[in-house]
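Sequence in, structure out. Go.
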Amino acid sequence: MWLKLVDVLACPTCLGELTCVADETSESGEIEKGSLKCQQCGKTYPIKHGIPRFVPEDNYAASFGYQWNRFRSQQIDSVNGTDISKKRFYSETGWTTDWLHGKWILDGGCGAGRFLDIASKNDCEVVGIDISTATDAARATLIERKNVHLVQGSIYEMPFRPQAFDGCYSIGSVHEAGRQDQALARNRDIDAILLSPDKCLVSSPATQPSVCFRDSRGQLCKRAGAVIEATL
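Output:
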């Protein structure tokens, strides 16, 4: 864990400020082992294998963690020599490399880092959060990139400070088709951590492509391609 990640982290229980204690640090300065303690409620969260853990490592999503650690490079463009993920990332977010410059971006449900690989090629800081140990797979693949930060935690109990991010995306990690709109609508934490409500989107798996996002007024919309279908 790079120390600058602490600047956007907060206790998921009370949103209190976290103090970092480093027990083991790599030669490059990354914290490999340590803890984060909330100054407000006193809860302590471990840093293990360079990743802060805000949920138990063995949870209901453990099978996803096993899958992505075993097949961690399966969908990584920079490993397999394709541009499939790149095309999907820019098509669905609508973001440009110019806009991404200098931003803090959140990947919700990052898995093994398929889209972290794309976003982090820009001059921005990218944080990937996943409830499973897929974060370990993402770290193993992208460990050389100092602008990539991994967090094991829940998107429904965000361990981040208010207005910490310029943009947020969750591409293909909502597995119940047609429910990506509810994932956004139910999660007020996403609103709280964003500087602007229109820089967030959640898309369904590629088998039934659909994009749900917020417009400049913060209202939920659905999009197929570049066409707004309905306001929810």
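Check: The helical segments are 62-70, 77-80, 84-93, 97-100, 116-119, 134-142, 180-186, 188-193. The two ends are 38 Å apart (CA to CA).
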